[in-house]
Amino acid sequence: MKRLLVFFLILLMVMGLGGIIFTGCGLWEEVSEDVAVAPDVELMEHEPMRAEEDVADFAGEINAVENEDAEAGIEEKIIKEGWVEYITGDVEAKVDEVEQIVEEYEGHIQESFFRKINDREKARLKIKIESNLFESVYGALGEIEDLVEIESTTEDITMEYVDLQRRLEVYEAQEERYLEMLEEAENIEEMLEVEGELERIRLEIESYEGRLNYFDSITDYSYIDVTVEEKKALAAAQTPDNVWEEFAFSLSEGWQFFSAVVVSIVSAIIWGLPFIIIIGILIFVLIKIRKRSTAKE
Fold first, then answer.
1. Which residue has the higher pLDDT, 201 or 44?
2. Whose C-alpha in 107, 109, 211, 229 is 20 to 30 A from the C-alpha of 58?
3. Which residues contact residue 41 at a Cβ distance below 8 angstroms, ignoring those fewer than 6 apart?
4. Contact 101, 220 (CB under 8 A)
5. In angstroms, rounded to a whole number, what is the distance separating the alpha carbons of residues 154 and 42?
């Protein structure tokens, strides 16, 4: 019987060792994948710098000539956003007031919706206006009655915008240089090599132009989100009308909590069932071995 007990202990050790090896293999695969991907990531991060190194000679001339004038006349690029909320007894009337202000400043309501759920009315508007009029519209909305919350944020991206412009100028200068080299090419091999570089440069130019256009779109115009909720519906939703409604609400909350607890217990039992079975079998075997040992003595 002692041999049988030793056999089960060895079996448990083998199972534990197998689990450790299996887990280790999974970790090794993850590390291997990271090591394999790392070189590619590094190359992607450093690839754009190659173009700047190629044109260091003539790009320096551009920056030297334009640096002082450009820094003195930089146009600020600022992203402006606002959020305004009203709680009122008449949602439609409040929306009309907001729309009048938008019309007065020649803005545009880009998105709007109105809904009514359980006798509760709610409207939301997304206003698009020129950035130079943001403060005026924002201030006018803040003077409307029934205002409960007003907030705004600004983000200055001027330096990032200027940096993109500089990089674009470098690539454009590089493009002109390679076009000259293409005209001076003496054979097909040189032409193909230059054309390959031109294609790469033009892709970079398109990328920078796209980002600059995007920055222009989000700084030339600003957005204000306006929310209007019905006052009486909000108050009614906070407190029950009578004792029976309060009792029903409490009963519903209690049942949801009880259901969540039962589901958690059942889930824990299901996940732990294999371990419970293994432990039960081991205990049963050990009890049998102990009884037989006692009977022999």
1. 201
2. 211
3. none
4. no
5. 34
d(CA 88, CA 228): 7
Residue pLDDT, tens place only, 217-251: 889 999 999 999 998 644 444 555 566 666 666 77
Dump pLDDT digits (tens) for 142-180.
Answer: 999 989 999 999 999 999 999 999 999 999 999 999 898
Mean pLDDT of all residues in 46-66: 41
Query: Among positive and negative, which fits the CA dihedral 26, 28, 29, 33?
Result: positive
Indicate the pLDDT class of residue 57, thresholds 50, 70 and 90.
Answer: very low
Looking up tokens 């190359």 gives: 43
Write out 127-189 in H/E/C secondary structure. Answer: EEEEHHHHHHHHHHHHCCCCEEEEEEEEEECHHHHHHHHHHHHHHHHHHHHHHHHHHHCCCHH
Write down the domain spans for the chain: 50-239
* 79 DSSP β-pair partners: 155
* Length of the chain in terms of residues written: 297
- Which tokens hold the place of 109? 């309501």
> Could you give the C-alpha distances from 65 to 60, 69, 281, in angstroms and in order?
9, 8, 85
> In this structure, how many other beta carbons lie within 10 angstroms of the beta carbon of residue 101?
19
Q: Look-up: residue for tokens 């003195």?
A: 72
Q: Encoding tokens for residue 82?
A: 């606002």
Count Cα neighbours of 224 within 13 Å in the Cβ-side half-sphere: 29
